[in-house]
Design a protein that fits this description.
The chain is mainly alpha-helical. Helices cover 73% and strands 0% of the residues. The chain has 2 domains: 28 residues; 98 residues. The chain is built from 6 helices and no strands. The radius of gyration is 29 Å and the shape is elongated. The relative contact order is 0.11.
Length: 155
């Protein structure tokens, strides 16, 4: 099979084809660059490290533990007609600013085996408390509200 030669392009057609290719290259470069930059940012946030906490491992874990206690008290002070989202928002906002420094505490505890175990326990406590807030706001709290609206039995 013999390949047929293409007719030569006119100068205007050649410029148009070069312009199209340049446009595709610029478009792809912009979006590939932005995607790469955002990917690096996300991966750095998720798996990156932070400089060690100035409070050290013991001080950092103690502050995280106090924040969990403060969040528990903040949830307990909530009104009973609060839904799950509001209850979780109240709990999570009471954890700040200490829990935004969690990576720094992890970095401070990197060389301390006992400190890493304590930090792991504090993190587990935080999520257990959060689960309890969810359960409480979805389970018993609506039942209590319903019982408050029901008149007592006369028999």
């Amino acid at each position: 099979m013999v390949a047929r030669a293409r007719p030569p392009l006119s100068p205007a057609a050649r410029r148009r084809r070069i312009g199209q290719r340049a446009g595709v290259i610029v478009f792809a470069t912009i979006f590939a660059g932005a995607t790469l930059w955002w990917t690096v940012q996300i991966l750095g946030s998720v798996w990156g490290t932070a400089p060690p906490s100035p409070a050290g491992c013991a001080g950092g874990t103690a502050s995280l533990e106090r924040a969990v206690e403060r969040a528990r008290v903040a949830y307990a002070a909530s009104t009973e007609d609060e839904d799950e989202r509001a209850a979780l928002a109240r709990y999570r906002s009471a954890l700040e600013p200490e829990w935004s420094e969690r990576k720094a505490v992890e970095a401070a505890c990197a060389a301390d085996t006992a400190g890493r175990k304590r930090l792991k326990d504090v993190i587990a406590l935080r999520y257990a408390e959060e689960h309890a807030v969810r359960y409480e706001s979805l389970g018993p709290a609506p039942l209590r509200r319903r019982l408050k609206g029901t008149p007592p039995s006369t028999k």
